[in-house]
Amino acid sequence: MKSYITIKEILQRKHFDKTEVVAGVDGLNRNVKWVHVVEVINIRKLLNGHELILTTGLGWKDNTALFISFLKQLIESNASGLCIELGTHTSNIPQEVIEIANEHQFPIILFHQEVAFVQITQDIHSLLINQQYQMISDLESYSQTLNKKLLEINQYEEILTFCQTFLDVQVVAFFDEDRIFIPQLSASERRIVLEKIEAVQHDSFFSIGRQPVQILGHQFAELVIVTDQREINEFDLLILDRTTTALAQYLLRDLYVEEKRRMEEAEWMTDWLDGHHSNEGIKEHLAYIEPGLKLNGGIVCTCKLHLTSQSSNLDGTYFKLLFRTIFEQQGFYVFSIEIRHHIVFILGNKRTPKTWKSRMADGFKRLNTADYSKKIKATSISFGVGKFVKQLSDIHISYQTAKETLRLQDKLSHEGKSYFYDDLHMYRILSLINRHSDLQEIVMEYLQPVMEYDRKYNGKLIETLKAYLACNGSKQETAKKLFVVRQTMYHRIEKLESLLGPDFMNSEKRLAIEFMLLAYDYLNMTETTNPTAHEI
What we know:
Elements: E1 5-6, H1 7-10, E2 19-23, E3 31-32, E4 34-37, E5 51-55, H2 64-76, E6 81-85, H3 95-103, E7 108-111, H4 117-150, H5 157-167, E8 170-175, E9 178-182, H6 187-198, E10 208-215, E11 218-226, H7 234-273, H8 279-289, E12 298-307, H9 313-328, E13 332-339, E14 342-349, H10 356-369, E15 378-385, H11 395-409, H12 426-436, H13 439-457, H14 461-470, H15 475-482, H16 486-500, H17 507-528
Parallel strand pairs: 4-5, 5-6, 6-7
Antiparallel strand pairs: 1-3, 2-7, 8-9, 8-11, 10-11, 12-14, 12-15, 13-14
């Protein structure tokens, strides 16, 4: 059913028995929305498009220039065609007019004898009005049938097939990188259709209709109908709209089912991360997920995506898919769960435990070089990898250490940063001391005289002390490292001895001072950094 009729169909009506199509034969499939009788030349502002024009040629008579101007206005206004009664005011159609009409596939139809325009308009308008009523009825019938199908179908392709059969057009569904063609086409035919869809300019009449499939405010797919046999009309677009709505409902239903399954899975994984499952229970659950799956220990990686304000939930979904793809290739079975704005990955080790860290490091290299900047709107990504545990029931230990590693990421210098808990060494001790005692007070006990001297005299004794210890007490190397003359270096060492005591380079005291300098930097980074990775 169509909301319009074509010129070819109008030519089958009784008033068009003795007509001749002299130009624009290729445009006979143009749709007609209304019929107008026109005898004026300036017509552009009077048309809305898809009108069939009836005229005797009174406006131009035998003036070819006026005739061409009139024709061009009709073409620019997207009129459907022109019917001319010969004999009264027009005797012939200039060749130039025919060429222009053929070029634009614009039909020109001649009446070789006098006809009653009023009877033609009444006939066609009655037909159009009846078709409008029929269109509403057919649209309602289509919607009802489609809604019933939604209760029975098992695959969304059945929705696409129903639309294709009803409209007799080519249907193409775009799902990310996937293209679904109903009916199926050969590779060459698919390429032609895709080129037509992606073309900036289409044929002289529109043969493509497209509608996004929106779910929860996001575009999940796009549905396109294509035909070379006729124009895509209002009825086609209404059917397309109903079909995309039904498709969205079907996909949303699947998402709810999947979300419910994930919630049940997330509850189990949360208990796993909290240490509530035994080794036997974990093995039983993994066997249910993937029979034959054997894991040799595991690790937890917590992740924080610092998303931009324009980013969407789909960014996180894409990132999880990317992470899973990369690390599964490195010999891990990846589980993921979102907990309080963090993504937690449990990586079950499928290979020898000896190589887990090197494989993780290779995975992070690939992740950092992956071209996902166009698809995920994140300014940076923080990772924290916990301890490797041999028993899967101890995965909660890896989780706690992974959270601690992530928490430290924003507090460490570039040199001290690492994704791995095993690499943090002294910072793990500092974090532990800082949580259970006053680390600031301990640092001040050792370094307060030096800090107060620098603050009072704008000195650089803390910097000198770090370099001196790093150079193992070599004054010459320290002077080169700080770009100062040897005499200045001697003066600074003397001042440090007066503030810290002449024994500050003795082994035990030196070790304590080095540790306090590390703690001093740790506290400074904690104060100056605005952490984004909070406690999970």
